[in-house]
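Hi F.,

I've been meaning to write this up properly since the lab meeting, where we talked about keeping a consistent format for the predictions we share between groups. The idea is simple: the sequence comes first, exactly as it goes in, then the structure tokens exactly as they come out, then a line or two of notes. No screenshots and no reformatting. I'm using this chain as the first example so we have something concrete to point to.
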Amino acid sequence: PRVLEALVAATCDAARACDKGLGECCDSETAAVTAFAVSNLAALSGARVELVRQGAISVLAKWLEARPLSELHRHASSAAQQLAGAGDEGKAGPSGYLEMRDEDVFARGWLDAKLTDANSRLLAALAPLSRAPVAAIRGHVAAALSELVRRPPNRAAVVEARGVGALLDVLHRCAVDLLAPPRRVEAAETGLQPSVKLRGLPMDSRCPRPERLDVLLPPAIVCLVRAARVSALCLRCVAAALWRFVLPFVSLRQSRC
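Output, unedited:
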């Protein structure tokens, strides 16, 4: 543990130095390598709390806000995905969520609170990258937001950061890419990322600053259906994505009737 803490501290020191000197003493390539190191550490569940304690979230937010887009954004968005817990392996319980020990549940809740804190600006910096021209960046954004929105306490923050619209942007781009044979496989895999549970998310103007799901969702579904007609190869992936979106949407509509 001490070695890991020392490694995290050294990496965060390097990240802060790159963040302060980005464009001056630290070039984009050096910053990208540092972001890659942060991403690798974030993949270790035991390092995530220490990374956040060392201020990694604020550095990631600044990196994600930087322009123009580069390798830095790919690694920074990957680090955000890892911190959100996307891709963690474990045994699923009766509710479908991963079974965790008490200390893991506490750490996950603490990390989620830090990641979704509006003052950290991480979600606000992450959401616009759903329209990035690089598929890998869009995939990391979709994975991070999808993982966060699975846990009910995070949903209000994701909605406020326009995260649902970002996920639908990713889905829409995947539907377009399904029409291009060279990008079909990657688009189908990325399209399965936005597994948003719509129950409990704002749907109409009665909610403050809503993301109008009843307006945003149908065009995304139409795009997927059109893509499925052209690309029979990806029909199963499209159907799975539609199932994840439509079923909770219909259930919520019925519950309101």
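Notes:
The first helix runs from residue 2 to 21.
Confidence is low (pLDDT under 50) at residues 202-212, 248-257.

If this format works for you, I'll send the rest the same way.

G.
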